[in-house]
Structure formats: C-alpha cells, structure tokens
Design goal:
The protein has 316 residues and is α/β, with parallel strands linked by helices. It is built from 12 helices and 8 strands. It has one domain (11-315): TIM Barrel (Alpha-Beta Barrel), CATH 3.20.20.220. The longest helix is centred in the C-terminal third of the chain and has 19 residues, at 284-302. It binds flavin-adenine dinucleotide. Flavin-adenine dinucleotide binds at residues 120-121, 146, 148, 169, 171-175, 186, 210-213, 237-239, 242, 261, 285, 288-289, 291-292.
Length: 316
C-alpha cells in the first residue's frame, strides 16, 4: 500500500521534496556545495554519491571510477575534505572480496589526498559485513563507520570495536527494521543515541552525533562536555536541506565541527529512485519534508529569538 502510494507520486513531486536534500547533478555540484557551505558558514561536509542499486560488476566499476574522480578533483580544494560511501555500491551484494578491494583502493587514494572517509551503514542484512570490512581495514587506514541506535545489537557492536580507536557516526538509522531486532519508538532510539555516545566515548572512540533533534543534540553534548574530553572527541552532523542553522552556528561557536551530509547524483533519475525507496521505507519523510518547508518560510521570524538553544557550558 505504502509502496503503491509512493510509486504513484509523480517524479516532479519527488524532485520537489528532493531538491533541498541533494546538491545537484554531477561531481562538481557536490564539490561546489561543500566549498560554499565552508566559505560562507565554516560548516564542513561529507560528500556522497546517490546511485541506483547495483546489480553487476560493470555498474560497481563505474561507481568506483566516480569516487576516484571525486578524490582527484578534491585535490585542488582547500576546505576540510570528507567523503561517505555505501558498501553495496562497491559490490557487497556481488562479492565481499570485490567490495573489500574496491574500498581499499578508495581508502588508499583518499588518504594520499588527506581526505577523510566514512563507510555508511545500510539495512540490518549488511551490518555484519560492513563491520567486518571496518575491522579488517581500520588497522591500516584512518576512517569511520556508522552504527544505528534502533538496532538491539548496537551495544554489542560498540563493545566489538574495542581497541580500534574508531570513529563512529551515531544515528537512529533510516531503515525500518523488524520489531524482533529493533526498537520501534523514536523516543527510545534517541535515548539510545545518548547512551551509545557515552559508551563510545568511554571506550576511547570518537563520535559523530548525527541527529536533527535538539534535545538529543543537547543531551549528547552534555555527555561529551562532562567528560572534559575536548572538542575533537565529537562532532555534530546533519543532512543537507534540514534547517538547523541556529544550533549549527552555536555548536561552531562552541568549537565543534558541524558537518553536513552533501549528496550529489549522476542523473536525477538515480536521485528520484533513491528518494522513492527512502519514502517507501520511511513515508514520514513527506511529513518531515513538509514541516521543514514550513519551517524554512518561518525561519526569518525564529531568527529574531535571542535566547540560545544550547545551555551555557558550565551547566553541564
Ligand atoms: C550526516 C548523517 C548521516 C547519516 N548516515 C546514515 C547512515 O549511514 N545510515 C542510516 O541508516 N542512516 C543515516 N542517517 C539518517 C539517520 O539515521 C536518520 O534517519 C535521520 O537523521 C533522521 O533522524 P533524526 O535523529 O534527525 O530524528 P527524526 O525524529 O527523524 O528527526 C528530527 C527532526 O528533524 C527533521 N528531519 C529529520 N529528517 C528529516 C528529513 N529527511 N527531511 C526533513 N526534515 C527532517 C524534522 O524536523 C524532524 O522532526 C544519517 C543522518 C545524518 C544526519
């Protein structure tokens, strides 16, 4: 039923919802957006390519080539450079060794250019394989991965990272999962973000806190600051297009890195297919997109509020 409704949405409407979240078509659009937000607001980025699901090695090779070109083009840039990529786009569904060697190739060229890499997390059928990739390559390369607070297994996964000095993006996870393996209430998933942020910090890892929820950001920040670990033990990440300007500004003023997820596409068809899939998995995006569209209209009014969103540092 959900799939029927979403597939029935005309492409121009999907594109309407997508525009704010996608930097544009082509590598140069992704790079330009990343350059602009750094120059204008000192907001860092992680550039990611949105692609169709890959089904054969030829398609995987094409994606690897696009990432290699992205890395090559980023050579000229002076903003903090960071890319994210999905294991399935590197061939995880086709052959794990193919994925491993593709990913190593990308890590090698990225590290030569001082580009940081994060290995995205997809739905729960890929969690084991993604963490295996991470644990295999982390001793050789400095890069991060993602854990999802909705999954029951996440606490054990954090413990399984012991000794790796990992960098973990902590998010609720965009994929709807079965209630036998995952929490179903968002309030619980957000409680877990705070709990797992603390656990990661206590285990010597760095945390990228990826949520748009003000309360969850403030409570996670509290966990970072009460440990006195310094501003580089955590950063705060948001999706491009979700208006969180004030809290982002306040976090930057407090000395933290704020990073936006900046996806580009090679053709709109891919971005639309990707967004349709996201909408089927999570139809509340239509509602969230609508709310944020209204938020953008009223943002000039809320900017007049003087009171900060973040409590003063000594309160923690
Ligand atoms: C930088 C970054 C990287 C991510 N990487 C991954 C990953 O690798 N794997 C994975 O499974 N998930 C990933 N996610 C997605 C994440 O798991 C959540 O699905 C998403 O961030 C929404 O959760 P939330 O914590 O913001 O809470 P929500 O309750 O969903 O959102 C809080 C509020 O934020 C706004 N909002 C949130 N999402 C949207 C949206 N799409 N459009 C408009 N407004 C919105 C709304 O105002 C909403 O009320 C990533 C998120 C970010 C920010």
């Amino acid at each position: 039923m959900k799939a029927f409704f979403v597939n029935f949405l005309p492409s121009f409407l999907v594109k309407f919802f997508a525009r704010a979240y996608v930097a544009g078509v082509g590598i140069d659009c992704g790079i330009k957006k990343a350059r602009d937000i750094w120059q204008d607001h000192k907001i860092a980025s992680t550039i990611d390519m949105l692609g169709e699901e890959v089904t054969n090695q030829e398609e995987v090779d094409k994606i690897v080539q696009i990432y290699v070109s992205l890395i090559e083009k980023l050579k000229e840039e002076t903003f903090p450079k960071h890319i994210s990529l999905k294991p399935t786009s590197l061939g995880l569904d086709i052959d794990r060794n193919l994925c491993l060697s593709n990913f190593e190739l990308i890590l090698k060229s990225a590290s030569k250019q001082n580009i940081t890499v994060t290995l995205d997390m997809e739905d729960s059928q890929y969690t084991d394989a993604t963490l295996e990739l991470y644990k295999t390559l982390k001793p050789k390369y400095e890069f991060g991965t993602v854990l999802q607070s909705r999954l029951f297994r996440t606490k054990d996964d954090i413990i399984g990272l012991s000794g790796l000095n990992a960098r973990v993006r902590m998010c609720i996870g965009v994929y709807n999962e079965d209630k036998s393996i995952a929490h179903t209430k968002k309030s619980v998933m957000k409680e877990k973000i705070v709990e797992y942020t603390s656990l990661l910090l206590d285990n010597g890892h760095k945390v990228d806190i990826a949520t748009h929820d003000h309360k969850c950001i403030i409570r996670s920040l509290e966990e970072v600051e009460k440990r006195g670990l310094g501003n580089d033990s955590a950063e705060f990440q948001f999706l491009l297009g979700v208006p969180r300007d004030r809290i982002q500004r306040e976090l930057i003023e407090r000395g933290y890195t704020v990073r936006l997820y900046v996806p580009f596409t090679i053709e709109w068809r891919c971005a639309i297919a990707y967004l349709r899939r996201r909408l089927i998995e999570n139809p509340s995006m239509i509602y969230l997109g609508g709310l944020d569209f209204i938020g953008r209209i009223f943002q000039p009014l809320t900017r007049r509020r003087k009171k900060s969103i973040l409590p003063p540092k000594h309160n923690f």
